[in-house]
Structures are given as structure tokens and as C-alpha cells.
Design goal:
By secondary structure, the protein is an alpha/beta fold. It has a single domain (about 1-255), classed as Acetylglutamate kinase-like (Carbamate kinase, 3-Layer(aba) Sandwich), CATH 3.40.1160.10. The protein contains 8 helices and 14 strands. The protein has an 8-stranded mixed β-sheet with strand order 5-8-2-1-11-13-14-12, with helices on both faces. The chain has a 4-stranded mixed β-sheet with strand order 6-7-10-9, with helices on one face. Helix 1 (about 15-30) packs across helix 3 (about 65-90), helix 2 packs across helix 3 and helix 6 (about 195-205) runs antiparallel to helix 7. The longest helix is centred in the first third of the chain and has 25 residues, at about 65-90. The relative contact order is 0.16. It is found in: Cytoplasm. Its main location: cytoplasm. One of its GO terms (molecular function) is ATP binding.
Amino acid sequence: MKALIKIGGTLLDSVDSRRRLAAEIGRAHQDGLHAVVVHGGGRQMTRFLEERGIESRFVNGLRVTTPEVLDAVLKIFAGSVNQQLVAAFIASGVLAVGLSGMDGLLTEARQLSAELGFVGKPVRSDAGLLNLLLENSYLPVIACVAGDRQGHFFNVNADQMAASVAAAMQAKKLFFLTDVDGVWGEEKVIYPTITVDKCKKLIDDQIASGGMRAKLEAAIEALQQGVAEVVIAPGGAAGIIDRLLSGDNIGTRLTADVMVPGGV
């Protein structure tokens, strides 16, 4: 089975968390799961910029990416965060390969707007390189940096990139590992399952905002492109990968089909 696992940057901020997730994903990979990892790194990026006196500006939740910030994006997302995670996989006995969307033009993007600078939206991903790596027992680890055919780099939202790559590789499952327990509703409870229509309502009613809105939008996009199931789950929970793969009731599950009883 193919699965795309997106890891939020907050879960990669400590050595212990990186090693735990790498060990769990690595075991599943060694047991036959064809896993691809996409990661963020927003917290690390903000800290890097603050240390250098560079202001972080956001428009609709997206980081304005000047040439100076883009240089930091390459250093942090495609550099230190990516390589630290690759190293954690290597330490767990898995041959991981660090990539960005520019490698083999794995993910092609277009610029969103002049106001945002070098911020892009994925327009297509190509799974050829990923399939080659997976067939040879390597585990791809992808930073949320994309490119275009003119050789321009773009800072892209990691959730959008995960959806694009998951669809391209025909993943059966897409897991968003985050620092919250799942999707919260207006009733202040975590939904165990949720329909696409309900996701859209949470977005329209501004109940889901910021990072959760981005995840729901990416989840909807992935489902519409053929991914069978998306789960938004707490990456800090012990044994999270085994629990997700076994269908344990954790986080919030989204599918394109009618929900099971108890869902919304």
C-alpha cells in the first residue's frame, strides 16, 4: 500500500520527536508500506528569520517570500529540517533520501501573486522519481519547496504539496500529522469522521481557520484527485503510525464516501 505522511514542523522541533516518528514510519516502511514523507518547518523558519532580524509577514496565512526569505526557505526547509529528518530515518535503519520539489521537477508550481513574492501553488507532481526510489526500498523525504520549468524556486504550503504528491503517486492514504487531536467542530468536540460537505461548511463558517483550514482544503483536493482516505491526527500520540494503519479511532478521518455512523 502507498501512503503519504505529512509531518508538521512543530513535530520536528525536537530530536526525540523526530526520532520517534522516524522509527515508527521506518518500521512500517520495512514491513512493506510504500511511504513518502512531506514535511513543513514554519516554526524553524520563523526562528531563523527572527535571529537575523528579518520580519515575517503573512497574507491570508501565507508567508510573504522575498528573495531574502526564499534564501532562508532553501536553507531551512530543503536544508537543515530536511536533513535532520533524513538523519533520524538513517539512525532508525531506513535508507531515506532527502528531496525538494525541484529535484526532477517532482512538484511544479506557479507563482500565486506578486504581493506574496516567491510563494507558489503546486500545479502538478510527477511520481516517477518517487516510484523509482520506493521500488529500490528507499524512503523519500520531501521538503515543501517546488520549482518551475524556468528554474525558479517557490515556497509552497506543505499541506498543498502533500495533497499534490499523494494524488500523483496514487496513494491510498494521506496522513496529516499535526499538533492537534483532529478537526474541532462548533460543538467543541473532535469529529471522528467528517464529510467533504461538512469540511466546506466549517471553512465557510470560519470555524476552521489558519492551519486547519489549509489542511481541510488540501484534504478535499486529495480526495477529489483519487486518494481514498485522509486522516488528520495528533503526531505526538504514541504508536500513531501503527494506529492509523490499523484503522484505530484516532484523529479525524475523511473519505469521499458516505461516512460511518457517528460521523458528520
